[in-house]
Amino acid sequence: LGRMHMWTIECRAISARPLTGYGPGRLSGAYGEAQADYFKRGNRPKIRMRLAGSPEYAFNEYLRVGVEAGVPAMTLAILAVIYSIVTLLRRNNPVGYGLLALSVFAAFSYPLSSPVHCCVLVSMLASASASLGTPAGRRPAIVNSSLGFILASIAAALLYMPYSRKTKEAEQEWITSQGWLQMRRYDLVVNDAAILYPALKDDYRFLYDYGRALFESGQYEKSISILQEGTLLSSDPAFHLMTGRNQEALGRRELAKEEYLHAHYMTPGRLYPLRLLMACQLADGDTASAVITARKALGIPVNEKNLTMHNLHSEIESDLHSLCHEEQ
User: Fold this and answer.
1) In the Cβ-directed half-sphere of 22, how many Cα atoms lie within 13 Å?
2) I need a surface site. Which of 46, 124, 196, 313 has the fewest CB within 10 A?
């Protein structure tokens, strides 16, 4: 059921940009926006609310290509895999069975997130390419496979070229800098993050920590800018929640409410976005809306094993009781 829900949301994302897609590496960000739109458009089954999460992977490599590069690229990828399988099997190359297995696996999981699996895929596709123009049985399968692995080695080298030593060093430096977060030395975190930003700007975890440090340092506008970059790379509603807190700090409560509500629709099974929305409404003096928000939050099923969620539910229930008592 979880995979069916994810595939539904990914298809909705593809339908929004069918020709060009959202760009490489933006699967998760596109997923979050599509899921928010899905829940905004009407009442959905509670099972869907419980299934909705913030996935980092597509659990279907073909749909991932569709989201990031569009329908033409997805169609081309599927046809290339099918053609390669047929070519290899017709020439009695056992690599064809491996490619068939990998292609089925790719429809339900995310094997291409691993560089090793990427190299294996390139090897198999290269074997099919090496078989073209050679009569079946004329060239040993081992020769085709060797050619494939040579091409795979070249592909692996090209794959890791962008992932330079500078990037690796930046990641290590950031791990060290995260210790300042624990010590609440946000000014030092901001200084380090500003230096490391050019190398780590495609890491959504880095962007969130950077945005949070900027918020704690009082640099609200810059924090919003960094967090907005993170929303393009991640489906985690935490980016919108932190953006809402920045907007509140700037006195823009209406924009803050929009961020909290958007975060709620991204993962409607969570209570915290509605808790923040309710607090913002109360700070704005809108008690009636806060009561509606509280009742909506209390209608969300609570996982009793989740202590944080259980405590939030109790807090909202207590606040609702107090608000109703004040109205009377």
Assistant:
1) 27
2) 46
Instruction: Enter the DSSP assignment of 25.
Output: T
For 71-107, how does the pLDDT look when each residue is reduced to its tens digit (9 = 90+)? 999 999 999 999 999 988 888 888 889 999 999 999 9
DSSP H helices in 183-271: 186-200, 204-216, 220-231, 238-249, 253-266
Distance between CA 279 and CA 299 in Å, rounded?
18
Alpha-carbon distance of 188 to 40, in angstroms, equals 40
Alpha-carbon span 324 to 328, nearest angstrom = 6
C-alpha to C-alpha distance for 155 and 58, rounded to whole angstroms: 23
Q: How far apart are CA 288 and CA 280, in angstroms?
A: 12
Find tokens 């300042």 and name the residue.
180
pLDDT in tens, 277-295: 999 999 988 889 999 999 9
Cβ pair 272, 47 in contact under 8 A: no
In 3D space, the residue among 193, 198, 199, 201 whose CA is nearest the CA of residue 219 turns out to be: 193
3-state helix, strand, coil in the chain (%, to 5): 75, 0, 25
